[in-house]
TrEMBL record:
Annotated positions binding substrate: 127
Designated name of the protein: Aldo/keto reductase
Active site: 69
Organism name: Jeotgalibaca ciconiae
Lineage top rank: taxon: Bacteria
Signal sequence annotation: none
Length: 298
């Protein structure tokens, strides 16, 4: 998908309109960029870098990575991609749970900063909950903030009860976001977690919004409802899934793209605005559960 300058400007403007707001008042575009499984293959490095840079140009300025991704290789690739555009990007990385203790988190963060070739992270997330007490995680995150190594922090893969516990800890109220798996075929968070976040005005960041791989991905992409709605907008099934993932208030998504063509396609999805009837049709095809379910995690 080749984009003209007019196309790029239109997508930039759409990204500027569709935003989430963090508790500290920071505004972010609803569409960012993920980097899972990127950076491992050196033969793809230049293509991945071009994809990320195009995304930034299109207004997808949130870039999410983690020390776990390729054991630091993803962060190194991101650091290379942002060489002269770091000030245009809201940079996110995640710490392993076993590195989240007060004793280890500073070193883990400094290692991420070194690989990313930056002096600070805009957002640092606990990748998932481990054995380190949340009280210690919060204290470690707050210390990193005081030292200027991170601007703010959040969590990933937390359900409503874990979020409730987090907010009961001194400093826990400074959590800015929760990154969780969410897509049209995995809607369990709509029963309890999304209402919790709405009531506490803490946004969510959806990873795997395209349900990467497997039978579920195939069912979503081949769905008659998804494809019929796509035809109305001249959009691919992937674009419909991505537009759906960000249609609710307070939810952004971080699709991964390893090449500029996919990035352009992802970016264009931000222009899709569903009608109520279209949303109902997608609900009928892929209904949300009417009971509490365990959090989907990959």
């Amino acid at each position: 998908m080749e984009l003209s300058q007019t196309d790029k400007l239109r997508i930039q403007q759409a990204n500027a309109r569709k935003r989430i707001i963090l508790p500290d008042g920071t505004e972010l575009p609803k569409l960012g960029q993920g980097t899972w499984n990127m950076g491992d293959d050196l033969s793809k490095r230049q293509q991945e870098i071009e994809a990320l840079r195009l995304g930034v140009e299109l207004g997808m300025t949130v870039i999410d990575t983690a020390e776990m991704y390729g054991e630091g290789k993803s962060e190194e690739m991101v650091g290379e991609a942002l060489k002269d555009i770091r000030n245009q990007v809201f940079l996110v990385s995640k710490v392993y749970p076993h590195n989240a203790s007060k004793e280890k988190i500073k070193e883990a963060c400094e290692n991420s900063l070194r690989r990313l070739k930056t002096e600070f992270l805009d957002l640092y997330l606990l990748h998932w909950r481990g054995s380190v007490p949340l009280k210690d995680v919060v204290e470690g995150m707050e210390q990193l903030k005081e030292e200027g190594k991170i601007k703010r922090w959040g969590v990933s893969n937390f359900d409503a009860s874990a979020m409730e516990e987090l907010l009961s800890i001194p400093g826990g109220e400074n959590c800015q976001i929760n990154q969780v798996l969410y897509h049209l075929g995995s809607r369990g968070i709509e029963y309890e977690l999304i209402p919790w976040h709405e009531s506490h005005q803490i946004p969510l960041m959806a990873y795997s919004p395209l349900a990467q791989g497997g039978d579920l991905n195939s069912r979503l992409l081949s769905s008659a409802s998804v494809n019929e709605i796509g035809e109305k907008y001249g959009a691919s099934p992937q674009q419909i899934l991505l537009a759906w993932a960000i249609h609710k208030e307070g939810i952004m998504a971080i699709p991964k793209s390893g090449n500029p063509t996919h990035t352009a396609s992802n970016g264009a999805s931000v222009e899709i605005n569903f009608t109520e009837e279209e949303l109902k049709e997608l609900d009928r095809a892929f209904p949300a559960p009417n009971h509490r379910t365990s959090l989907d995690i990959i």
